[in-house]
Amino acid sequence: MRSLYVGILLVMAGTLSLSLVVFLAISRQIERNTFYRTFERTDELQLEEARQALDGGGPAAVSAYMQRANRVFGGSHYLLNSAGVDVISGQDLSNLIPGAGATEGRQRRAGKLVISRRTADGAYWFIALPPNRPHPWVYFPYYLLVIGATGILCWAAAVWLVSPIRNLTATVERFGRGDLSARWHTRRRDEIGYLGRAFNETAERLQRLLTSERRLLADISHELRSPLARLKFAVRLARSSPDQGHALDRIERDVDRITSMVSELVEITRAEGDPEARKFAIVDLEQLVNEIVSEERLDAELRECRLQVSGQVERALWADPQLLRRAVANVLRNAIRYSPSHSAVEVTLAETGDTSIVEIRDHGPGVSEELLSLGLDVLTSGNHIWDKKDIFDYLPRQPRLLRPANYNRDLPGSGVVVLRARNGVEVAVINLQGRVHMPQTDCPFRKADELLAALDPAVKVKFVDFHAELTSEKQAMGWHLDGRVSAVVGTHTHVPTADERVLSGGTAYQTDVGMTGPYDSIIGSEKALALKRFLTGMPIRLDAAKSGVELHSVIVNVNEATGLATGIRRLCLC
Fold first, then answer.
1. Mean pLDDT of the chain, nearest integer
2. How far apart are CA 343 and CA 477, in angstroms?
3. Catalytic residues
4. What value does the mean pLDDT take over residues 324-351?
5. Is 553 exposed, middle or buried (CB count within 10 Å of its CB: 0-12, 13-18, 19+)?
6. pLDDT class for 247, splitting at 50, 70, 90?
7. Which of the given ranges, 28-32, 174-178, 221-225, 508-512, has the highest pLDDT on average?
């Protein structure tokens, strides 16, 4: 059977039909065993009373009794002698008497029910002709009412059972097509509800596993780029170095470092993707941090920086000791690696309410880390990304800080990242840079096509930051990507434009979102210094202004199923 609806309705109809047949059979049996016996005693009583009336008052008394019986019980009642003649009218009604040898009867004659009972001496018969029952068609409207109500109840039961299953099936199909965020939302507490929650738990675990796999590939790609470059350089040195033993030792150290790095990445990804694989235990956080600091102190001295530990935590944690150790050690190693010489890496322990805090602070280039810690998901950039040389080492370590994707592919960093939003939807963020009156880069239009083609089709929501000088170039990019991305928002010129709209293909567009910074300035710089540069033509250093800080942004509403925008509006926090 192809439809569960039909199956449920047929089963219910069959159940109701069987119940009706059984009910009628039981009713008939009860009627025979209970009601008929009561009627028989009533007939016997009427016969005795009619006989007494005849003996006491003659035919006239019998006539009065029969009229009263007709009035009370309905129908017709007669007292016949043994020959079948009515004692009142003398009419021959012998055709109503049952066959020879019978003392009572309940049978149909000429379409009428005839109830008969004979006296013990056989001298008289009491005959009762009850009123005819109404024709079955009289009850037809009631039958229709009962059938209709039953049908509605059966349909409601089928809907109650089948509709959730169909919705769950549609959710499973969405998940199977690659929509890993598909979940079945229900408040049911029955078996169907348990089934839906079991699917949600399974889908959540699969999503974590797949996401972890993708993150593993991305992490390996980012983390191995620099070690592999060093390894390649070491191989070249080994070929030309007179001390090949020392060169080979260096290669071996790099290989060991890469092996260890890959092992840690795989282990962390496995633990993130499969929580059941974690081995939890009670961890003394302060002792753990002190052990890590002791282990890394020699590396800090070699890099001419010092480690300072302050504060304390008294409570123990329930955590995976190895993962926690690796997390803290990794942050501390990065802080040591990127701290300037003769500086301090500060490790601070603290407790706030139910939270234990380990704060590791260095004095290297880490502005983006501070911004990301404030709740920002992605930082995009533009032509000034390369102004500080420290960024070359930092970009490979922070995939959420993007540089324009159409710069030379050999440069560090990436121009695209896919992250999961707080509602579980995957969002791709693409950073591109224009070419007119800007540093030379590859074609941003072709690069956009290339990046979109490489994205997973399951990623529907795509946001493009186009860092460009000319309005015409930004508008061209908007129309070029219309219908293929969720939004194209321009940056670089510092001033918000009032042309936000949703293009005909469903892409939200704004030429420039403006800047977040001091608007009591000349595009963020102190007015006096900027004016002096314009008036004198001299290369005067510009300092950031301090007053009139405003945050300018846009809010884009996106249909997560199609990835197309449904609205865009400017937001200014002044």
1. 82
2. 45
3. 384
4. 83
5. middle
6. low
7. 508-512
* Tokens of residue 536, six digits: 């004198």
Q: Tell me the C-alpha distance between 40 and 42, whole Å.
A: 5
**Every domain of the chain and the residues it spans:** 4-133, 282-364, 365-574
Residues 428/448, Cβ–Cβ less than 8 Å: no
Per DSSP, the residues of 298-321 read HHHHHTT-EEEEEE---S-EEE-H
In angstroms, the Cα distances linking 15 to 1, 12, 214, 453 are 18, 5, 54, 58
Given a contact cutoff of 8 angstroms between Cβ atoms, the answer to whether 339 and 331 are in contact is: no
Terminal Cα distance for the chain, rounded: 65
Measured between alpha carbons, how far is residue 138 from residues 130, 437, 456 in Å? 19, 94, 69
Distance between CA 410 and CA 501 in Å, rounded? 36
Supply the pLDDT for residue 269. 59
Q: How far apart are CA 379 and CA 403, in angstroms?
A: 9
Q: Dihedral through CA 173, CA 179, CA 181, CA 187, nearest 10?
A: -20
User: How is domain 282-364 classified at the architecture level of CATH?
Assistant: 2-Layer Sandwich (3.30)
Q: How far apart are CA 487 and CA 501, in angstroms?
A: 10
Q: What is the CATH number of domain 4-133?
A: 3.30.450
Residues listed for the chain: 574
The residues, ordered by sequence, that sit 6+ positions from 461 with a Cβ below 8 Å of its Cβ are 421, 425, 426, 427, 428, 486, 558, 560, 563
CATH: 3.30.9.10, 3.60.21.10, 3.90.950.20, 1.10.287.110. Which one for 365-574?
A: 3.60.21.10
Coil, strand, or helix at residue 76? strand
Contact call for residues 62 and 49 (beta carbons, < 8 A): no
Tell which residue, 466, 459, 511, has the closest CA to residue 484.
459
Closest CA to 128 of 72, 82, 89: 72
User: Tell me: the pLDDT tens digits for 339-369?
Assistant: 777 788 899 999 888 888 898 887 765 556 6
Tokens for 63?
A: 């006539």
